[in-house]
Amino acid sequence: MDRNxxxxxxEGNEVKEKKWxxxxxxxxxxxxxxxxxxxxxxxxxxxxxxxxxYIFARGVIRWITQAISLVVGIIPYSLMELEIIAxxxxxxxxxxxxxxxxxxxxxxxxxxxxxxxxxxxNAACTISILLFIYVIFAGVNYYRYPFSAISDLTIEDSxxxxxxxxxxxxxxxxxxxxxxxxxxxxxxxxxxVLQLDSMNWKELSNTAANAFDxxxxxxxxxxxxxxxxxxxxxxxxxxxxxxxxxxxxxxLEANVNxxxxxxxxxxTMSHELAHLHGxxxxxxxxxxxxxxxxxxxxxxxxxxxxxxxxxYASNQxxxxxxxxxxxxxxxxxxxxxxxxxxxxxxxxxxxxxVISAVSTTMNDNYLKANNQSDGVKSYGRMVxxxxxxxxxxxxxxx
Length: 398
Hints:
Blueprint: E1 7-10, E2 13-16, H1 34-47, H2 49-57, H3 60-73, H4 79-105, H5 109-137, H6 147-150, H7 160-185, E3 187-188, E4 194-195, H8 201-218, E5 230-231, H9 235-240, E6 245-248, E7 253-256, H10 265-276, H11 282-295, H12 299-320, H13 322-329, H14 334-348, H15 354-369, H16 382-397
Parallel strand pairs: 5-7
Antiparallel strand pairs: 1-2, 3-4, 6-7
Helix pairs in contact: 1-2, 1-5, 4-5, 7-12, 7-13, 8-10, 8-11, 10-11, 11-12, 11-16, 12-13
């Protein structure tokens, strides 16, 4: 047979031999354009917050997010988990298929070059699609207006005295709510630790959604209907990574670690829903979770939100003045101490492990790459928002 006519026979079917440059005639090559498009979108949003805010965060992407989130929300299980499990399986299948193809074409240099380049392009096209999805549904939101501007809160320098009175206010509020839960609605174990009915996840999800509906009356930016947060089946593994929740832009889900301290779960749900509403900065998501929980009619949500705020405010107070920190602690009640003790010993078992160290490093680098130059330290900036909200409330009272 004349090899110059570039014809091969494979299982009785005539197939034209393909040279490497024919890869560039495949229609899928246009998917590679998503990489420069994604980078351009990030660049323009980084340099113009108006575009990030009004075209993406509040524009058409917001409606697309809601539509996809509602459809995905019908499924009671986390698609994120399925996707993460599927990834290594798909990679193994891809590599095995790749190797088999190489072996089958190893005697034909022209066909081998084509096969290798084609598979590389397939991988690049997949990466470009994932990058585009991430940028559209998460990346651009790091460059939207700060929540302090949207909420008309003024971030300013505060004294240690301001920080002390913020802590005192939060501690008294938490103690009052915890006492009400102890006497009325709360369920406690034999150690006095507050428990949630995590089996009734639908009710918890509806409570979280209602809290955001009420919050939207004060801040219209939270208007809209989104899918419910998902309980993670492999929550124990999340705990090993020291993660309480994950917003997954590839399925637009708010995923929650249900193995964590029960009192913290409502605040975690609200935190991840804040991400789903388009607020990606961690300090802002924490603050929004606090505000949303306060809007809830559910005492467990209110308590969870206040305790979230208190944990960050008290950590900062301890750094500034251990004496004032201990003075505030005199206002904690037994229920609060029981919950905090339970949470401490739960997370203690996962400290300083290889998995937690890798996870922390990855999270730190991720935050720095997304306009949060402080890395994991940016979580502490929530205190500035709490102080601004506290001062605004005090001024309105006076």
